[in-house]
Amino acid sequence: MEKPNLKRKVEAVRKFIGFIMIVIFIPTLFFLFTAFDKEKQQVKGFHDVLDEKIVINSISLPQAGQMLDKDGNVFSEYRQPFRIIVKDIPTFIQDVFLVSEDRYFYEHVGFDFAAISRAIIENTKSSSIEQGGSTITQQLSRNLFLDHERTYNRKLSEVLYAYQLERKLSKKEIITAYLNTIYFHNQVYGVEAAAQFYFNKPLLELSEAEMAFIAAIPNNPAKYNPLRHFDTTKARQERLIDQMVQAKKITAEKAAFIKNEEINLHIKERIDLYPDYAVYVEEELRQLIAKQDGFQTKIEAANSEEKKKQLEEALNEKFEAILSKGVKIHTALDPQLQVQTTKAVNEGLPYPKMEGAAVVIDHEQKEIAALSGGKHYQKHEFNRSFQAFRQPGSAIKPLLVYGPYLNKFNAPITELVNANNYCKSDYCPKNYGGGQYGKVTLKKALARSYNTPAVRLLEKTGIDEAFSILNAFSFTRIVEEDYRLPAAIGGFTYGMSPLELTDAYTVFVDGTYQPSRAIRQVTDLEGNLLYKWEDIQETIWSKSTNEKMRELLREVVNNGTAARATAPSTYIGGKTGTTNDYHDFWFIGLVDQYTAGVWVGYDMPANMQRIEKNQPEVRVWNNIWR
Predict the structure, then answer these.
(1) Active-site residue set
(2) pLDDT tens per residue across span 144-164
(3) What pLDDT, in 10s, does the model give residues 115-129?
(4) CA 596 to CA 565: how far, in whole Å?
(5) Could you give the angle at which helices 91-101 and 136-145 cross, rounded to 10 degrees?
(6) Which residues cross the membrane (predicted)?
């Protein structure tokens, strides 16, 4: 029985010593601040130390950002956290917080000596800090710069930060920052976000009863979460209204009216549409920041993996910082076309575990209008439209073989080429099914996708010259080992993504190329331009060559391997592609306004010969336009 008694005595002594030290510390701190006001030179020295140790030039708060479609409608929001910063905050809700949290806000210098003293007396009754005596400025300091640990060291830091905030900011700036910072549960921060989340309307449109209701939440967000404890929140709202009467901010009659107003929550549903497209926009924004802010050049020039890693980490930090600033990302998304594209992939591949991807580009504007990252795609899953790199098969022939050949030799599409077997050293490619067709026209060779003519044409053009044209497009994984004859029929080390291949096919619009983009521009909340692509259009081949290529691609659809391709368009042209062992099916095609590409396959490559005749890639492509 001795040990428990000893423990209680030790605890009592500890509390007593703590009480004495705090009682001595607080008056001393108060005296020092008062003395500093009297001794200007000493004040200057103390403030210099504060300015050196606690740097506060401005307050930057993370807030919700938005993605907008081609018509300016929001289709995706960043809501971790969900915060919308506002400067115009109604006086009523300010008064509710001031009355309940800090009645002497406009008199103190960041901390309230009387409130802290009262808290000390209460805390000596417990083994921990139960009452903080914190002013609004102290709470803001804690939310911005400190943690929520209940220790006296943290409390002292809180006081110093609060004093520094009062020196650097006006009272209006502090109360505004506080009301934009506080937590309202459900990942909601700030009064404007709370108004929009709980009542689905702006703060300025809330009634006073609704303002008081949301003001009841931050005192204990879990306890006063209105989605779970509505009655508890309503009871605290009424207590806050009573405090407003006591403080003579409103009359008893008005208080009764406010209390009697029925509160009806209208929870704002998160806007998170078209995940396939939204995830790609995030990736493109990262690329845009990397290019415009110089990260791309530095990463390419990095002389070590460690340096490259450091630069990539810095890029990621900048990317996250931009997203947290509440930016508006204006995109080229066509919602109707996006729905059609994802539906075409979801419903057009009724085979277990078989996947697909599709990309639709407005080739006149060089903008990505829609894309599908896979069947029933979920946000931040592997997005096959730009993350899957596969062998292109014969879909590469127009870009690497026929276009360069026609441009170099100005050959007519009726020129004959040998479609019999071909061998060079130990490389002996064959046509599909082993067929030999003698002399055929260029038009027929591409339409029927014969392999041996393609290899002969690449050899005649010259591998280096043909690849110099291919490298004008945005293919990111072409390597030196690819510079060989098998590339003519799709033999690459890593291959291409559906987006890359579809993007390259936009050259067949008019013989020029400019990278296709999803992002039109990025602005801040005030509409100021932050980022925008500055791409340059490049001529790839002559107008004559392009006209011939369009005729060749039309023949593929009219009388060749893509004869099933249809669309409500005056022009349809394209090219199919099948890789070794039937691991990949491709169809990239053009209509009047769009270039669209479809890839079909398994994530872990597997033979699909059993469905080859069904041409699922063409069926998906057709369904995009229905």
Answers:
(1) 101, 394
(2) 876 555 555 555 677 777 777
(3) 665 555 555 554 444
(4) 12
(5) 90
(6) 12-36
Q: For domain 355-624, give the fold.
A: Beta-lactamase (3.40.710)
Quick: pLDDT tens for 237-253: 999 999 999 999 999 99
Q: Do you find a cis peptide bond into 81, omega within 30 degrees of 0?
A: yes
Q: What DSSP designation does 366 have?
A: T
Q: Partners of 431 in the beta sheet?
A: none
CATH entry 3.90.180.10 includes domain 54-260: no
Minimal CA–CA distance to 454: which of 401, 404, 513?
Answer: 401
The pLDDT of 555-576, averaged and rounded, is 98
Q: How far is CA 92 from the centre of its chain?
A: 36
Q: Are 595 and 348 in contact (CB under 8 A)?
A: no
The pTM assigned to this predicted structure is 0.83
As a whole number of angstroms, the distance between CA 441 and CA 437 comes to 11
Cα 416 to chain centroid distance, Å, stands at: 51
> 48: pLDDT confidence band, cut at 50, 70 and 90?
low
Confidence check: pLDDT of 167 > 90: no
Distances (CA, A) of 470 to 343, 368, 592: 32, 21, 24
Confidence (pLDDT) at 153: 53
pLDDT for residue 40: 45
Rounded to whole angstroms, the Cα distance separating 81 from 32 reads 39
pLDDT digits (tens, 9 = 90+) for 285-305: 999 999 999 999 999 999 999
Q: What is the DSSP letter of 34?
A: H
What stretch of H or E contains 369? strand 367-372
Boundaries of every domain in the chain: 54-260, 355-624
Phi, psi of 219 (to 5 degrees): -55, -35
CA distance 61 to 189: 10
* DSSP state for residue 393 in the 8-state scheme: G
604: amino acid identity, one letter: M
Number of CB atoms found within 10 A of residue 331's CB: 27
Judge contact between 502 and 597, C-beta under 8 A: yes
Q: What is the pLDDT, as a whole number, of residue 79?
A: 59
Query: Any idea of the CA torsion for 231, 234, 240, 243, to the nearest 10 degrees?
Result: -80
Mean predicted confidence (pLDDT) in 532-542: 97
Q: What per-residue confidence (pLDDT) applies to 147?
A: 55
